[in-house]
Design brief:
- The protein has a single domain (about 5-275), classed as TIM Barrel.
- The chain is of the alpha/beta class and about 290 residues long.
- The chain contains ten helices and ten strands.
- The chain has an eight-stranded parallel sheet. A two-stranded antiparallel sheet has the order 1-2.
- The longest helix has 17 residues, at about 125-140.
Length: about 290
């Protein structure tokens, strides 16, 4: 395999690998091993969440890799993300739930990125959560903070808040060629906020799309690899997920080719809005 994910620099100067392993629905029992195996082949970015119930397993996999070769395997080279679950919005609840996450990941010292998982509460609670996250950054237990599934109005709440001392570094949303979310993407990029694409593989629903299959054949790649590369060339940080070790290698082996502008245009359906996940909190207006 040639090349590995490049690093992107966030608006706070922190670097993040442009491709990571999504860990939604990866059971605690499997997460430690899949993370360890991923680290061995070059992954350095792992996306967990309190809702996923696998923070502990992910940390266990990272710790195993760190202990295996302390001279070369460094904590600073691994990027670990978690997310605040919706019922725990608000200042006090968030302070407590951050402590809970830190307890789960004991041994890897800190969280690289903590996101608000979705906007599903209200403005006062969301801003209370942001206040607690800012304090956690000041304390050094979290390095960067951001949001997930936020629409433009939800992000504006934070940016316009007079108590904002730290700007979101990332908005993580479902994105693929049939769900391009141009309004959210343009707003984020205009404000120096990186966009992370989750479910880039459409949960497998579009892997047989005729245009995608044709383009994959042209480049000698699998349709999944073309979708991952589409996200990267569109400027997104991409989070393909798998619980199968044999898929880990294919999903990261996307740095030895470039899709032409013509083929990118052919794949991209800005006029469609196909949500493949079971939710779309960007439409939440509470």
């Amino acid at each position: 395999m040639s090349n590995l994910p490049q690093l992107r620099t966030l608006n706070n100067g922190v670097e993040i690998p442009e491709l990571g392993l999504g860990l939604w629905q990866t059971p605690e029992s499997k997460s430690a091993n899949i993370v360890y195996e991923a680290l061995k082949i070059g992954y350095r970015h792992f996306d967990s969440a309190q809702w996923y119930n696998n923070e502990k397993g992910v940390a266990k996999g990272i710790k195993r890799w760190l202990k295996e070769d302390p001279k070369n395997n460094k904590r600073k080279d691994v990027f670990f993300t978690s997310k605040i679950k919706d019922p725990d919005h608000g200042y006090e609840k968030t302070k407590q739930t951050i402590k809970n996450s830190l307890e789960q990941i004991k041994g890897i010292s800190y969280i690289d990125l903590m996101l608000i998982h979705s906007p599903q509460s209200n403005k006062a609670l969301r801003l209370g959560t942001w206040k607690a996250l800012q304090e956690a950054v000041d304390e050094g237990v979290i390095k960067s903070i951001g949001v997930s599934n936020f629409a433009v109005p939800h992000i504006q709440e934070i940016l316009k808040w007079d108590e904002m001392t730290i700007k979101p570094v990332i908005n993580q949303v479902e994105i693929n060629p049939w769900l391009t979310r141009k309004e959210i993407v343009n707003f984020c990029h205009k404000n120096g906020i990186e966009v992370e694409a989750y479910s880039p593989l459409t949960r497998g629903k579009k892997l047989n799309d005729p245009i995608l299959v044709k383009i994959a054949k042209k480049y000698g790649k699998e349709p999944a690899q073309i979708l991952i590369k589409w996200s990267i060339q569109k400027g997104f940080i991409v989070l393909p997920k798998t619980t199968h070790e044999e898929r880990l290698l294919a999903n990261i082996d996307v740095f030895d080719f470039t899709i032409s502008d013509e083929d990118i245009a052919q794949m991209t359906h800005d006029d469609e809005y196909q949500v493949f996940c079971s939710w779309d909190p960007t439409t939440y207006r509470g």
